[in-house]
Amino acid sequence: MLDLIVIGGGPAGLAAACSAWEGGAKNIVIVERDRELGGILNQCIHNGFGLHYFQEELTGPEYAGRFIRMLKSTGVEVRLDTMVLDVTEEKEVHIVSAAEGYRVLRAKAVILAMGCRERARGAISIPGSRPAGIFTAGAAQRYVNIEGRMVGSRILILGSGDIGLIMARRMTLEGAKVLACVELMPYSGGLNRNIVQCLQDFGIPLYLSHTIVDIKGNARVEQVTIARVDARRKPIPGTEKIFNCDTVLLSVGLIPENELSKKAGIRLDRRTNGPVVCENMETSVPGIFACGNVVHVHDLVDFVTAESQRAGAAAAEYIARGERPGCDVLELTNGDGVAYTVPQRIRRSGVKKSAEVFFRVSRVCGRSTLCVRCGDGDIAEFKRDHLAPGEMEHIVLPKALLEKCGSGNLTISVKEVSHD
Hints:
Blueprint: E1 2-7, H1 11-22, E2 28-31, E3 47-49, E4 58-59, H2 60-72, E5 77-79, E6 82-87, E7 92-97, E8 101-112, E9 116-118, H3 121-124, E10 134-136, H4 137-147, E11 154-158, H5 162-173, E12 177-182, H6 192-199, E13 206-207, E14 210-217, E15 221-228, E16 241-244, E17 247-250, E18 254-256, H7 259-263, E19 268-269, E20 274-275, E21 288-290, H8 301-321, E22 329-334, E23 338-342, E24 345-347, E25 354-361, E26 368-374, E27 377-384, E28 393-398, H9 399-404, E29 410-416
Parallel strand pairs: 1-2, 1-8, 2-5, 8-21, 10-17, 11-12, 11-17, 12-13, 22-29
Antiparallel strand pairs: 3-4, 6-7, 7-8, 9-18, 14-15, 15-16, 19-20, 22-24, 23-25, 25-28, 26-27, 26-29
Helix pairs in contact: 1-2, 1-8, 4-5, 5-6
């Protein structure tokens, strides 16, 4: 029997495996469906990675390369070009590959690090004909950066997620004309630095509170019509704008890859679409941990790394000491202005010095106070000058503070400072 199986060889899986090895787990296997390690980082050739973790600016492949080199200094086994078909509550992992066929691996612990996938056209019901020339932003990124193939010359981007914003710049640098970036919400879904560096620096307009209402084309996209939407996100007649283009890129959200989590009987959070996890990233099934974008969609890979290292260390501790008692649990809930929290549960007995909580807000706010409430009273406040859904927030709750809290739930909410 193995000590640990890590499913996914992207940034989350790499960091988790290295951390588990350092924590004392030695019989570790990473299972990766692609032909090489690194995951999505391999196609992210722009810089901006590693500012938090390495204190320097790296490209995606450079960031992945550093962790791959760390992994090579361990005894972790890597199985590439191998698909995981099933994970059970008993920590059996069913895999298949061309080299070895169908096999069942068994381990004392499992870490889920499958990442996320893009939401495609069928999930958002864009009206119009269905010609060629419609890509997810990530697919276009792979075509251009890895396959060396140009996807179009006159491009409209729907959605302002970070991948879409980055591809607006990338396509412009490759010689294409990016006509506009169109966003359904009244705010961008990406980091502010990407709005500035990828749109504003290249004069690409951003249409907030707009969406595509028609696509025309026979063999390929020929024309796209957009329109402003109202407060209910319904198109407003008479506000249409027409763009003659040959390509549409979709950057309309990411979905954690949790089909395997469901098979393992793991409880999922409907807000994140990822597993419900405790302070050490353990799921509702003892001995199965989750980290990275399979839990919730991150904005920075540095945060993925830190979270995954916590999961790896916790898995190593589980392998050495067994299941941790589940009593004395604080449930985290989202109050006004907060979309979700991770972790969703904090076991006070498992907190050494402090517990980290990550979350996203549900609206753009100016100067605000993040309030942490337990029972009938606030137990902590954190000041922020600006909050936006596209940027993940992070607070640290000391163990002493958690010990003072009663048996009630912890609620995190946003209180915006009045401008009067």
